[in-house]
Design a protein that fits this description.
By secondary structure, this protein is mostly helical. It has a domain of about 280 residues: Mitochondrial carrier fold (Alpha/alpha barrel). About 60% of the residues lie in helices and about 5% in strands. A two-stranded antiparallel ribbon has the order 1-2. Strands 3-4 form a two-stranded antiparallel sheet. Strands 5-6 form a two-stranded antiparallel ribbon. The chain is globular. Belongs to the mitochondrial carrier (TC 2.A.29) family. Pfam families: Mito_carr.
Length: about 425
């Protein structure tokens, strides 16, 4: 009986025999791909979907850099006021005094001139006038001490002008192309390469690929463009107290950092002066590497699940935008909160005006100093504006970046 079955159905004798096909709509379609060990007909296994257009695998490094730069510019403009508030709070905790413009004799003499009748120091409405010198109102010191995020924004607007909320934005824009233009494209390249490598050599390590790729990409971007980051922090932390004098820009700020070291009596001060442009980079890396690791290891699985809800690989641009912004917002918020103490240490090292101390400080020493001065509250100074800034910032950067890649890839696919 078994022999007769073998004669009647000879094609079941081998799994590697030719597979019959039928013609349908002018095409030959394979009926069966494989047979199991018992000779049962099995349907073909589902094929993995092609790479999503939003992943941008077909895009080159230039297109990725263009997408990243655009996202960084948009983010820098929108969230810069919160960055200023965060830096002011941390700088104040470090001992930076935001004093009254008439606290020194030079500023006083500048005010008492032909136009002194029109002088107005724009005290906050909630502050009572402490005294009047001539026709100039002098506000009490509390008017220049920040109590929280909203208080910082409120007092900057009334005392310095609305435009000062975007102090350091030009430095942020100068960082857009070199920093994010390196960071996001390199993250894509590292992630794709590591995923391909681990899937073949060590599949169990594949879930950790975003963590490693984000850390490597952020380290590269930070080391490349750190001096501009140093200038931005100083521009946001210090305000110009001299009347009718324009605050220093990026170049002037960096030259001031170098000149502070060169003016000391230390030997090799010329070399040390340029080394000062990287003051605090260790603290920056200590903050940014864990931030990127936490951010990307949270963002990747979150947006993968959200993409499934909006159509997966068939999602339109709006779906890609929503999924990536939501995932970026959640990931950025968590990462910013976890790394806040390191951000406080980074700010304190960057605003240190004693050149000798700045070059000798370490991140560990800075954290211990912050703990001695303010305890746990000191370590989380500026937590509110940092978290409030990081969530929207990461969401804007990632969603804009992915949408531009999606649009560019879609155009290439249809052309």
């Amino acid at each position: 009986m078994v022999e007769s079955e073998r004669i009647q159905i000879p094609w079941m004798a081998s799994e590697h025999s030719a597979v019959p096909s039928v013609e349908m709509n002018g095409q030959d379609l394979s009926l069966f791909e494989t047979l199991d060990s018992q000779g049962c007909i099995c349907s073909p296994p589902p094929q993995p979907p092609e790479s999503s257009a939003a992943d941008g695998y077909k895009l080159g490094f230039v297109e990725r850099t263009f997408s990243a730069a655009g996202s960084a510019i948009l983010s820098a403009i929108i969230v810069n006021p919160l960055d200023v508030a965060k830096t002011r709070l941390q700088a104040q905790a470090a001992g930076v005094s935001y004093s009254h413009p008439l606290s020194n004799m030079t500023s006083r003499m500048a005010y008492f001139g032909p136009t002194m009748m029109f002088a107005d120091l724009r005290c906050s409405p909630s502050c009572a006038r402490a005294a009047i010198e001539g026709t100039v109102s002098i506000c009490p010191p509390d008017c220049f001490r920040y109590k929280g995020t909203l208080d910082v924004l409120y007092k900057i607007i009334h005392q310095e002008g609305f435009a000062r909320l975007w102090r350091g934005t030009n430095a942020g824009l100068a960082l857009a192309i070199p920093t994010v233009g390196i960071y996001l494209p390199c993250y894509d390249v590292f992630r794709n390469w590591l995923e391909e490598y681990t899937s073949k050599s060590a599949p169990s390590t594949t879930p950790y690929v975003p963590l490693v790729a984000g850390s490597l990409a952020r380290s590269l971007a930070c080391a490349t463009c750190y001096p501009i980051e140093l200038a931005r922090t100083r521009m946001q932390a210090f305000k110009e107290t001299q009347i009718n004098k324009k605050p220093p820009g990026v170049v002037q700020t960096l030259l001031g950092v170098v000149s502070q070291v060169k003016n000391t009596n230390s030997p090799q001060n010329c070399l040390q002066g340029y080394r000062a442009l990287w003051t605090g980079m260790g603290a920056q890396l200590a903050r940014d590497v864990p931030f990127s690791a936490i951010c990307w290891s949270t963002l990747e699985p979150t947006r993968r699940e959200l993409r499934k809800l909006v159509g997966g690989d068939d999602a339109n641009a709006l779906g890609v935008l929503g999924a990536n912004f939501s995932a970026g917002f959640v990931a950025g918020t968590l990462a910013a909160g976890a790394t806040c103490p390191l951000d406080v240490a980074k700010t304190r090292r960057q605003i240190e005006r004693d050149p000798v101390k700045a070059l000798r400080m370490t991140t560990r020493q800075t954290l211990m100093e912050i703990w001695r001065d303010g305890g746990m509250k000191g370590l989380f100074t500026g937590f509110g504006p940092r978290v409030g800034r990081a969530g929207p910032s990461v969401g804007i950067v990632v969603s804009f970046y992915e949408v531009v890649k999606y649009v560019l890839n879609h155009q290439y696919s249809t052309s």
